[in-house]
Amino acid sequence: xxxxMSDFARLLEDQIPRLRRYARALTRDSTRADDLVQSCLVRxxxxxxxxEPGTDLRAWLFTILHNQHVNDRRSALRESVCISGEASxxxxxxxxxxxxxxxxxLERAMTILPEEQRQVILLVGLEGMRYEEVARILDVPVGTVxxxxxxxxxxxxxxxxxGLGTIPRERYEPVYGRRAA
Length: 181
Known about the structure:
Elements: H1 2-27, H2 30-46, H3 57-78, H4 97-112, H5 115-126, H6 131-138, H7 142-162, E1 172-173, E2 178-179
Antiparallel strand pairs: 1-2
């Protein structure tokens, strides 16, 4: 039995960098991201008997992390705690100045996207997950994943090409990419 537990712990440990990357992208705050990953790992250890060996551990963990993030956001809203999108973790960039500026612009553009679109783009684009995996993690139909990904990519292109990244979020209509009247 201890071999199974140590194998699970090793598999879990291998997923920590991916969990941290996704959590940081979701929360845009390294401290909250680390807390989120820790909560996810504690839940995974407590519920490891529910994971079926041979299935995708990464998808199972991302589901736990996503659900924990949603629960945290709901709790914060109930407690009237303002979750600020201002504190963001800078994306490490290559020494090339143009690449650094493009990454900075992309990071800012990602903050303008609605959370639903940002989550899908991060899971598909950053983590390389299949649409079906993303749909299971977010508990939405595959068609919704495709729709959110398409709208998110289109909006990112508009932002990156048109410089809409400077528009404050409250003056921006994320669904249509237009300024509010």
